[in-house]
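Changelog-linked ticket: adenosine-5'-diphosphate example.
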Amino acid sequence: MNNQPNSTAPNLREIAALFDIRADFIDGMPYGSGHINDTYCASFNQAGRFPVRYILQRINTNVFRTPVKLMENIARVTRHSLERLIEDGNPEAYRRTLTCILANDGQPYAIDALGNYWRVYPFIERATGHDEIQNNDQAYQAAMAFGNFQKLTAGLGGERLHETIPDFHNTPKRLEALKAAIEADSHNRAAGFKAEIDFVLSRTADCSRITDLIAAGIIPERVTHNDTKLNNVLLDDVTSEGVCVIDLDTTMPGSALYDFGDMVRTATPTTREDATDLSKLDLRMDRFESLASGYLVAAQSFLNTAEIENLAFSGKLLTLECGIRFLTDYLQGDVYFKIKRPEHNIDRCRNQFAFVAAIEKHLPEMEKVVASRAG
Ligand code: ADP
Ligand code: GN1
Ligand code: MG
């Protein structure tokens, strides 16, 4: 089974009818640039007001093997988030968190005639998830929003959340998976990518730095988002304020460093993740300073010293890990990430590795910035 876009377009009217939307379907179309789920934006006439928009999302069950447990997590996290916002008197609580529209049977998901799992969220209006950063304020606001999200989930009582993808950010295991893909070489691609493979192998020691600190109890487990790429937070179109953290599929036990690292990966490079002209790729220190400042405003009160000391390094690790995952997927024949061209995954991999090299160059400066911002 693979993850490339389904050629048969779903009947969105029929999907919408599985949910308690209480509005008349007008139309719908594919939406966004996520690499994992199939996302649609649909318009409705809601008691004479139109268009009222909803997001209809087909969950990728090739990637998320336990969709019911996944939706249990999301329902808990979003309910908790809404309760806190209302308690705090936020006048637009329903724009500040995803909320699940329940299916006709009361579950936060519905299964269509083909066995696909679907969910529906109100469309968060007048806010955008940016694929590419435009200014330092966006970095500051996005980082603060993800930091506040970690603060919010720290207050989630009850049972440990389900691990929707076990070992998601276990970089040593990601490295092992790459080695297995090289060994199997199912698509006869490995021979052409010796430079990329050597790049990873020469950084083997980096891969286990955070997992070792977690195993030693020096870095604590927290409930984290685990997919904090820039376009997974919607920023207000007028003020740039972080309005709503989205894409909660991987919200589960993790490390704060995974979240900060993925922000560095996506908010500080000068080019987008799949750019092929690497001569222009560098890390912008001004973006990094804004990112670290915004994150620490929200997170400084709960992070421990070891976490703060590894914030800059986490950017390097998460970028390396993402490059490893793109390379693995390329060698396996593009079964995980959606691609728009045959070389997409290897282009992304090369871009990530070039960015690792850029981070390595800036790491001492980045560490100084974190130290000064953390006081
Ligand atoms: P994926 O896991 O495939 O990345 P996301 O949940 O991130 O899927 O959704 C894909 C895109 O759809 C997002 O980047 C964002 O632009 C848009 N999106 C998702 N949910 C909403 C929402 N509730 N309101 C507005 N836009 C949304
Ligand atoms: C995927 O779902 P999306 O597009 O926000 C991936 C992340 C990767 C990212 C790389 C569940 O994120 O882990 O870092 O692509 N999500 C999953 O762009 O694997
Ligand atoms: Mg996403």
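Closing comment: Example verified and attached. Residues 136-374 form a domain with the Aminoglycoside 3'-phosphotransferase; Chain: A, domain 2 fold (CATH 3.90.1200.10). Residues 34, 231-232, 247 surround magnesium ion (ligand 3) (CB under 6 Å).
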